[in-house]
Specification:
By secondary structure, the chain is an alpha+beta fold. 58% of the residues lie in helices and 14% in strands. Helix 2 crosses helix 14 and helix 13 packs antiparallel against helix 14. The longest helix is centred in the first third of the chain and has 49 residues.
């Protein structure tokens, strides 16, 4: 009788297959995550590259028609839609971004590849990025100053004149924005504070005269408004005449144009420069066109600020709760029940926390604060409405179980001899806690904070109820006292992705921005987590010998 293969039996019973199986699962997961991030990055970052503009002549069944635009996508028809399914040759369709939505809608059109007669890339085709109505495509035919034509055609002289006037318009637009943000908004804020102060004194029975201050502010506002109107009139001076794809010539006011470029005539250096400028505009500007154009800076600012405030709020509460449960509470049925409740809270859907935050924080706590400290603003709410502070508190409540569990695990890993040795040397229990236990457990605390940040930064459902809006007119931080306005509503990258992806009136125009914003949110989460991970690793290296 042959002897059994002990090597094979030992290998199977040793658990090595499960190790390899877990390693394979982890590898597949990492590959899937990297592939997904790569797909998002490719589709999002490609949006900012100056794509070539095509001039296509195609047969629409009634004759040959010209079409100008960018190639936005390619798809192949399903087999059931093919004229001859047996041929096995799919029908290629191209999505062309033709722009000019204001005068020649729609701005995206599908075109069968077989219907294309010719395809060219003329160097004189121009792309105009506008404040409204998306891009415009065509040929430059003239430049106007008021009603006088100052340039003809699309030669080098006309193109240079166009760029000079666009630079002038950009400088005027920046001056208007600075005047609006630094002076007009400040005056309006002071006038509102003056109105509230007058009503506050009326409610208190005081009769101080504040009319002189109001007259001074109104006079200053009149002067600034006159300067603003002069800038607006100067902004309306220039216009261009553009020939679009159907042969019509349309007039475009330069006040509505952000920039213009000829992608088919750009060198590689010009393309890279344009790409970097477009990427910077996306990161630094405000959104336009129902969030389908422009940048996402308010959403970046709101997301980072909310996460930072949430981290400041959740860390002490989570650590205090964990320290009490592990170091001070008498272990028994009640503490076990509390731990079960904490673990269950970690699995509650986020929208439930949103409803709780709306009812408790916004209506109860915020309404009480308004009644006690802001009666002069009634019936308009100050803190009794969704805002940044309530969103941060709601997410702190949502993530505090993660911090509690992680901190307790860190406290449990500290040897009992460390505590007893500290007490034996004459330290009090509080000194032992603050000077030894908490520093040694700090890596675990940071692990909980990292998990809390990762979950909070991607939450959307609860934020829709407690502070996030589609478009916030003002940032939570400005130059008006108290400088940080926690009661204001704010924008968030997660909600911005939802709004652009599912609520946009122009789906094709919004799709690249969905990928770009998703990549940006992933990047912010990665940066925040890497910062905490680096700090945690340094602390682990410092206290590893104690835990060991």
């Amino acid at each position: 009788m042959p002897a059994p293969d002990t090597r094979r039996t030992c290998w199977w019973t040793s658990g090595a297959p499960w190790v390899w199986l877990n390693a394979g699962a982890v590898g597949l997961s990492v590959a899937a995550v990297l592939g997904l991030v790569g797909l998002i990055a490719a589709r999002g970052l490609a949006h900012f590259w100056p794509a070539e503009v095509l001039e296509i002549v195609h047969d629409d069944g009634t004759g040959r028609v010209s079409m100008i635009g960018e190639l936005a996508g390619i798809e192949f028809a399903d087999p059931e839609l093919l004229p001859d399914p047996a041929s096995g040759t799919p029908v290629e369709r191209r999505l062309i971004k033709t722009g000019n939505r204001r005068v020649n809608a729609p701005d995206f059109r599908w075109l069968d590849r077989a219907a294309i007669v010719s395809e060219r890339r003329p160097a004189d085709l121009v792309v105009f990025e506008r404040m409204e109505w998306g891009n415009a495509y065509g040929r430059l035919r003239g430049i106007f100053e008021h009603e006088d034509r100052v340039a003809h055609g699309s030669d080098a002289q006309a193109w240079t004149a166009l760029q000079q006037r666009l630079a002038r318009v950009a400088a005027l637009r920046e001056e208007i924005a600075d005047l609006q943000a630094s002076t007009i908004d400040s005056i309006n804020y002071e006038l509102e504070e003056l109105r509230l102060e007058r009503r506050r004194r009326a409610l208190d029975g005081a009769g101080f005269d504040l009319d002189w201050r109001e007259r001074s502010l109104n006079e200053e506002y009149t002067r600034v408004e006159a300067r603003l109107m002069d800038l607006v009139r100067a902004l309306e001076r220039d216009a261009v005449e553009v020939e679009i794809m159907d042969g019509r010539r349309v007039r475009i006011e330069l006040r509505d144009v952000l920039r213009a470029w000829r992608p088919n005539a750009m060198s590689r250096v010009e393309q890279i420069t344009h790409y970097m400028a477009s990427l910077w505009d996306f990161l630094s500007q405000e959104p336009r066109e129902a969030n389908t154009e422009g940048g996402v800076f308010p959403a970046i600012f709101g997301t980072v600020m909310m996460v930072l405030i949430m981290s400041v709020l959740v860390t002490p509460f989570g650590v205090i709760a964990a320290v009490y449960l592990h170091e001070y509470a008498r272990q028994g049925a009640l503490v076990r029940l509390i731990r079960i409740a904490v673990n269950n809270l970690a699995g509650v859907p986020g929208i439930v926390y949103g409803v709780f935050g709306l009812g408790f924080f916004v209506y109860l706590v915020g309404g009480t604060l308004d009644d006690l400290f802001y009666p002069e603003a009634r019936p308009a709410p100050t803190f009794g409405t969704p805002g940044l502070v309530w969103a941060s508190l709601t997410l702190a409540l949502l993530t505090v179980p993660v911090v509690i569990v992680s901190t307790e695990e860190g406290l449990a890993r500290i040897p009992r001899a460390i505590r007893e040795g500290s007490l034996a040397l004459g330290a009090t229990k509080a000194e032992t806690l603050f000077r030894i236990i908490l520093p040694v457990a700090s890596p675990s605390i940071l692990t909980g904070v990292i998990l809390a940040v990762a979950r909070a930064a991607g939450e959307v459902a609860p934020l829709m109820l407690v502070g996030v809006v589609k478009l916030a007119p003002a940032l939570p931080v400005d130059g008006n006292p108290p400088f940080i306005h926690l009661e204001r509503k704010f924008m968030h990258l997660g909600f911005h992705i939802y709004d652009v992806g599912f609520q946009s009136p122009n789906v094709e125009a919004a799709r690249p921005l969905v990928y770009a914003t998703a990549l940006l949110l992933i990047g912010i989460i990665v940066v925040l987590n890497l910062t905490a991970i680096m700090l945690r690793n340094r602390l682990e290296g410092r206290y590893r010998f104690i835990e060991g």
